[in-house]
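FORM 7B: Structural annotation worksheet

SECTION A. Query
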Amino acid sequence: MTSHIIRWKNAAQSHWRGWDEQDIVRLSQRLHDPAAYSGGILQITEREYRALPERNRRIAASKDHVTVSPLLIWVEGRGLFAAILKE
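SECTION B. Predicted structure
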């Protein structure tokens, strides 16, 4: 495939899913950044929230032993949610 077709394909997938690879990277960085937490609640964007299940799926697929923990998340523009975090 040509590079233009690949770019169009990636843009269409990103739009359809609501997240892209950079959102997974930023989410992983925020999870380990103490400044991203306020009162024990992680503050993330809606795109990062949509990328959380894919990040968890990748973590579970790459490790034999996965630690699961609950997490409160404040999603920009949506409010407070409870989520499961895999590490």
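SECTION C. Observations
Residues 19-86 form one domain. The longest strand covers residues 68-75.

SECTION D. Sign-off
Analyst initials: ____
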